[in-house]
Amino acid sequence: MQGNGEGQGIIAREVGGLWVINCSIHNFEDAIRLEYSSHSHFEANNVSDNAFSGITLWEFSNSNYMKDNHANRNDYGFYVIHSENNVFQDNMACNNTYEDISCESYQVDLGGNKCNPLWPLTECANSLVCQPGCGDG
User: What are the extents of the domains in the chain?
Assistant: First the structure.
């Protein structure tokens, strides 16, 4: 899915149980944005080259699962604010302008990700686990 640099590729408001698998979403403000949405699953998506973020979890988007997603060359790879108990597993976030994974929330599991924590003093820094592996993204 190719955008024009504005809006969202996929936006979900007040929904649960959404599954997004094997999508390529480029050139939007946010490739994927959840607002007040929980219990969704995002796997094997390429959400790169967006103006703001690859995947945004906004305001009470809790208990979502992110696995094997590539979020590269955005302002933020993954942007999480006021959302809890989300699981990030084996994602790759590289070469994002500000942060690869920005957490302004408490997170339960952020293990096995490949990222460059450019700003490691975020609220989830103690639980953020980044493995070496970022290359050209």
Answer: 8-131
Weakly modelled stretches of the chain, pLDDT under 50:
108, 111-112, 114, 116-129, 132-133, 135-137
CA torsion 27-32-36-40 (nearest 10°) is: 180
At 95 the three-state DSSP class reads coil
Question: Which residues are within 8 A (CB) of 15 and not within 5 positions of it... i.e. 6 or more apart?
Answer: 37, 40
Q: How far apart are CA 50 and CA 39, in angstroms?
A: 24
pTM above 0.90, yes or no: no
Name 102's bridge partners: 79
pLDDT in tens, 85-121: 788 777 888 888 988 888 775 554 554 454 544 444 3
Q: Which two tokens stand for residue 4?
A: 């024009």
Q: Which residues pair with 65 in a beta bridge?
A: 41, 87
Q: How far apart are CA 6 and CA 19, in angstroms?
A: 23
| Nearest-angstrom CA–CA distance, 63 and 86 | 5
